[in-house]
Amino acid sequence: MAKVLVVGAGIFGTMHAYFALKAGHEVTLVERDPKPLSASVRNFGMIAVGGRAAGDELKVALRARELWGELAQQHSELTFRPSGSILVATSDNHLAVIEKVAQYPDASDRGWKALDRKQVMEMNPGIRGERVTGGLYCSQDAVVEPDRVLGEIRSIMHENPRFEYLPGHDVVSVDETSDGVRLAIRGGKKVSGDIAFVVPGADHSSLFGEHLDSEPLRRVFLQMARLENPGVTLTTSIANFDSLRFYPGYRGEPIDELEPVRPLVQEMVMQLLLQQRVDGTLTMGDTHVYEEPFPHEMREDCYDLLLDEAESILGTRPNITTRWQGIYSQNTADLICVRKKVTQKIMLVTGPGGRGNTLSPAIAETSMKEMFNV
User: Fold this and answer.
1) Domain that holds residue 199
2) Whole-angstrom Cα distance, residue 248 to residue 72?
3) How do 171-177 and 273-276 pair as beta strands?
4) Is the CB of residue 107 less than 8 Å from the CB of residue 137?
5) d(CA 327, CA 38)
6) Residues 236 and 256 occupy one common structural domain
7) Model pTM above 0.70
């Protein structure tokens, strides 16, 4: 068995550490910050299988969903909820589109089912908007708690004496040596091992920037918010109708025939996603900006539009309690991710887009197979 070093303790790095440990290796997980602070904790926690592109992406998402289920079954402390999602229609025309989408050839693989208004409200009593006409249910979708799941998985790994976690260790270089690999930590510390996975997230320059420069990668800026507890339980994740335009799994003639989107939705590439946290509050988003330099200010008109959409679905308008922005790494070539061997002993993995929770277990599983030729 090898000593595996993983640089970056977001969801991708954490899953690489988990699967390396599961395979019997000794694992050291290294994190630059005192605790992970980037995209892995600034998201909805959604494991969104239903909207994945047909073909390889859907296959990987289904495998990842299976692995999440296995992990939760083995470790009851993991706050994994296989609660599904409802993409909500607020007009008869939109419901007609959903009914056509629900007839796609791979609909059963995704767990899709078209619902009328009564069925939506029976499945999720928190959806009470007067304009709601129905929705698309996806049974394969699930959710974790983004501010908890990394710590929960690390706690699982800490039960194994072969696991070590080094937060607050800024890796400045990763080098192959004659007998393995070596990390140089800011301040002079060295960490040695046999194999290294470098999982840099949206930092495309600090480590192996010269390799990432030639890859089809970009960074994406988004803004999100936390809403107060609406006083009702939302039993599923929620998306608005604009999500049909955003996710590749819905592509097809019904979507091609849709009316143009509203100007702000088009400008900011917006959709409404709502996810209730275990404390009852709601995570709401999101917007997408693809061209750098990114803005340093967050736009209130975007929040107003998202709140309007939330109110049309929930029948109530919760107040915003906190706002934040995030940046994630996305590949632009319809790849599952960018996975590159820098040397025979060092592998770079990044660029999943906004699919970290959705795909990370299966991507990490594949990384292990490719690195160890199994």
Assistant:
1) 3-46+147-215+335-372
2) 28
3) unpaired
4) no
5) 7
6) yes
7) yes
